[in-house]
Structure formats: C-alpha cells, structure tokens
C-alpha cells in the first residue's frame, strides 16, 4: 500500500521476454500509451532495432534485458529449469529498478517465467497487471514435445494459474477470448491486430528508391538487362530524360512472405509450390517470372536457406533478407502477392503479417487453420489453401493475367481498398484506453 501511494501515476511498463524489434504489437502498445501522455518503460531484448517512431518518442524509455546464452550444463530438463530460475531473478531485478508504474502490460507468450515475475513486481509496486494473450506458451512448447510431455503439462498449469492473477486481459481473437473463459476462467477483451498507419500502398517513386537500395545487396532486385536511357531495378525504371518512374516492361511478379522461422511455419510447402509453378512455365503456361522474398529472423532460417540453395530454378529467384523496420512496410506496399504459412499452435491466434499485408492492400494466400476465417475471407480478400499443390494452382490462377489489371488479383486488391478497416490507434483507443481510466 505504501508503494502504491508513493507514485506511479501515468506510468506504464510494457514488457516482453523477447526481442522488442520483432514484437510489433508491443511497440504499438507503447506508442499508443505515449500518444496519450503516458510515460512508458518498454522492456525486452534489444537484438534488432525497434521502429524509429519508438526510438524518437520522448515518452518511451527502452529498458534492455540481457538475453541468456550458454546455459548448456547437464541434461536438457536441468538447462530449462536453470534458465527459468535465472530469467526470473534477472527479470524481477530489472522490473524493480524502473520507475514505479501504475500498470504492467505483459505479452504472453513467452509467459514462463514472465507472468509470475510481473505479478510479483506488481505486488511490490501496487501495479495492476494486464496480460496480452497472443497465443498459449504450452501449445508452442508442444510443437517440439508431445501434448502430454511433463514440461507441456507444467506450462499449461502455470499459464492457467498465474493467468488468473491478472487484473485485465487482452487477446487477439474472439475464439481465444472464448477459450480463455471456458478452459481458464479468464475474462478477456478482444483487441484484434490492426495495421499501423505506415502500412499502406507504396507510391511508385518510393518503390523505385527501395528497389534500387535493395538491388545493391540482393541480386533478385537487380535488372536482368541494363538500359542506357533509364535507371532500372528488376521491377521499376526511371527515365533519364523525363525523370518519371514506370513499372519495368516484362517485370517479374513480386511474391513476399514474412516469418519468424519457427516450427509453426512449414516453408517446404511454399518451396514445393514454387517447384510446381516452375513446372507450369516449362509446360508452356504464360506465367511471369517470380521474385520470392522471405523476410525475417529465427532459429530455422539456416535450415531453410540450405533447402533453397539446393533448388535450381530458371524462372524463380528467392532471397531471405532481414529488413529494417521502416523498409518492411514499403516492401509490402510494393508487392503483388503475400503468402502466409503461419499455422497457429493453438488454432486461436491470427498472423499479424497478414494484418500488415491487408493494411497495404496486398492480397494474400494463407494456409488454413481453425480461426483464420476471422481475418482472411476466401475469394474476397485472398485465398486459403491446405497444401502445396493447392497453393501452386492458386499462384497459377492469380498470375495468368499478370500484369493486367482485370484479373482476380486486382479484384482482391480493390476489395481491400474498399473495406477500410480501422487502424491500430482507433481500435486501441476504443478497446484498451477505457481499461486504463484516468492517469493513476
């Protein structure tokens, strides 16, 4: 009670036991709070640079948490327990050193040990705990262990127990909201992922500048033929006389996918579909060449890069860059089609990458899982597939008219333009701001 009286008015700690640069939703929370005059401590790993808006905000202070490495002593179970214990002490120490907050807004997963630690810090500070449920940690753990593995069962018990100690809960789908109540007896408010304002269609001038920048590092963005009268990328060209930027004639189609390179996304599905697409061209189908860009960082990137290097395509080029936070929305807004291979471990969360693509009016082919229909409307704003063969057929159908504007691809884009979904700021103000009340 003394700590509660000591202050904390208007201050919020936004925390994730993960890389802040790859936690866009938590960055959006921090920016929304800062916009309303809250002093924000944004706590997490600083592996990759957060968005420039976060770095430039006077109301947001980054609080780094050192990532644990090298705990490889003894059996795997011992390593896991040791890591949790060390992280608990480290996270609690970091939380108690920041200025006292009125609220701790925590991302789950990862929730072990962050939920319990945040709850303990809240007791010390007199802070209210808000958990933002993106998924369940125990279902992610079950991707590498069986559902009945002791670690998975302990993780489920832990989330169920400590999740109930929160003051408020947010979640990403209505399906998760229902599941939290039915199985955990936790009441939550659905805050759908929405694109930030900078996810939008990219003007041709900015497209050209981005492609020229990327062409310095990545060969697929380089023109296949040099033109003496124009400055060219693979997709655009600037006329040296008029200075106008145009789409390059005979340009390839730009296919983009983004990923965390984890077990819940099987990129062999896309690679097999691309093999079939190459086969369609060899059989005489009038299809454009493809540049496939897969952006992101994660543990399985080297594995899939090894598979990609074994492929020998004539009409398809693949690259796997890591893009700066400001370049990623520009590339989405310049692409012709997005592909999503995210399969929710719980079947209850939605891929934020598709939300961002829709913000850029970019049609999507997405792999099926239980609640995907809450986001992707089949044959309206994109297509849903179940295997590589179905994806290959969809790519063939969508690109047969490329780059003409009368086909299915353009129809999906027009539907996305007409839908005018609310952006993150508007949705956040309607859903989260009432929970916080006046500055306390």
Automatic annotation (TrEMBL):
Segments traversing the membrane: none
The Glycosyl transferase family domain sits at: 249-401
Catalysed reactions listed for this entry:
an N,N'-diacetylchitobiosyl-diphospho-di-trans,poly-cis-dolichol + GDP-alpha-D-mannose = a beta-D-Man-(1->4)-beta-D-GlcNAc-(1->4)-alpha-D-GlcNAc-diphospho-di-trans,poly-cis-dolichol + GDP + H(+)
The main location class comes to: endoplasmic reticulum
List the subcellular locations: Endoplasmic reticulum membrane
One GO MF term, please? Answer: chitobiosyldiphosphodolichol beta-mannosyltransferase activity
**InterPro entries assigned to the protein according to its UniProt record, in alphabetical order:** ALG1-like, Glyco_trans_1
Give the EC number.
2.4.1.142
* GO CC terms, sorted: endoplasmic reticulum membrane
Q: How does it sit in the membrane?
A: Single-pass membrane protein
Give a yes or no for keyword ATP-binding in this entry: no
Give the pathway.
Answer: Protein modification; protein glycosylation
- UniProt KW keywords: Endoplasmic reticulum, Glycosyltransferase, Membrane, Phosphoprotein, Signal-anchor, Transferase, Transmembrane, Transmembrane helix
This chain's function reads:
Mannosyltransferase that operates in the biosynthetic pathway of dolichol-linked oligosaccharides, the glycan precursors employed in protein asparagine (N)-glycosylation. The assembly of dolichol-linked oligosaccharides begins on the cytosolic side of the endoplasmic reticulum membrane and finishes in its lumen. The sequential addition of sugars to dolichol pyrophosphate produces dolichol-linked oligosaccharides containing fourteen sugars, including two GlcNAcs, nine mannoses and three glucoses.
Stated family: Belongs to the glycosyltransferase group 1 family. Glycosyltransferase 33 subfamily.
| PANTHER family on file | BETA1,4 MANNOSYLTRANSFERASE (PTHR13036), CHITOBIOSYLDIPHOSPHODOLICHOL BETA-MANNOSYLTRANSFERASE (PTHR13036:SF0)
This protein's name = Chitobiosyldiphosphodolichol beta-mannosyltransferase
Q: Which organism is it from?
A: Certhia brachydactyla (short-toed tree-creeper)
């Amino acid at each position: 009670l003394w700590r509660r009286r000591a202050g904390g008015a208007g201050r919020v700690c936004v925390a994730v036991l993960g890389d802040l640069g790859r936690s866009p939703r938590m960055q959006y929370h921090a920016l929304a709070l800062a916009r309303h005059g809250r002093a924000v401590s944004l706590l997490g790993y600083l592996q990759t640079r957060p968005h420039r808006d976060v770095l430039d905000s006077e109301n947001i202070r980054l609080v780094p948490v050192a990532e644990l490495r090298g705990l490889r002593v003894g059996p795997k179970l011992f390593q896991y327990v040791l890591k949790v214990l060390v992280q608990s002490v480290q996270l609690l120490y970091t939380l108690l050193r920041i200025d006292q907050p009125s609220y701790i807004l925590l991302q789950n997963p990862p929730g072990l040990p962050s939920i319990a630690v945040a709850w303990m810090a809240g007791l010390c500070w007199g802070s209210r705990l808000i958990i933002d449920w993106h998924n369940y940690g125990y279902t992610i753990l079950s991707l590498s262990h069986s559902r009945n593995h002791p670690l998975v069962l302990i993780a489920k018990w832990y989330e169920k127990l400590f999740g109930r100690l929160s003051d408020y809960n947010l979640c990403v789908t209505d399906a998760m909201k229902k599941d939290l109540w039915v199985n955990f007896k936790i009441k939550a408010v659905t805050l759908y992922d929405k694109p930030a304002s900078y996810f939008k269609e990219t003007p041709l001038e900015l497209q050209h500048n981005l492609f020229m920048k990327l062409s310095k590092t990545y060969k697929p963005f380089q023109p296949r033929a040099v033109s003496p009268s124009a400055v060219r990328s693979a997709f655009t060209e600037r006329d040296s006389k008029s200075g106008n930027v145009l789409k390059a004639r005979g340009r390839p189609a730009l296919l983009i996918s983004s990923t965390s390179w984890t077990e819940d996304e099987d990129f062999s599905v896309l690679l097999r579909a691309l093999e079939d697409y190459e086969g369609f061209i060899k059989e005489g189908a009038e299809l454009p060449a493809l540049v496939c860009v897969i952006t992101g960082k994660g543990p399985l990137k080297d594995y899939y890069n090894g598979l990609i290097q074994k492929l020998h395509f004539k009409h398809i080029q693949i690259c796997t860059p890591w893009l700066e936070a400001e370049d990623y929305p520009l590339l989405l807004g310049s692409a012709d089609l997005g592909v999503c291979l995210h399969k929710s471990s719980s079947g209850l969360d939605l891929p934020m990458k598709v939300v961002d693509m829709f913000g850029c009016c970019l049609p999507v082919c997405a792999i099926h899982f239980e609640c995907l229909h809450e986001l992707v409307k089949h044959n309206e704003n994109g297509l849903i597939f179940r295997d590589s063969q179905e994806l290959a057929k969809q790519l063939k159908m969508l690109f047969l008219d490329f780059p003409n504007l009368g086909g299915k691809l353009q129809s999906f884009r027009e539907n996305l333009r007409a839908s005018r979904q609310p952006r993150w700021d508007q949705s956040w103000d309607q859903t989260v701001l009432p929970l916080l009340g006046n500055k306390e």
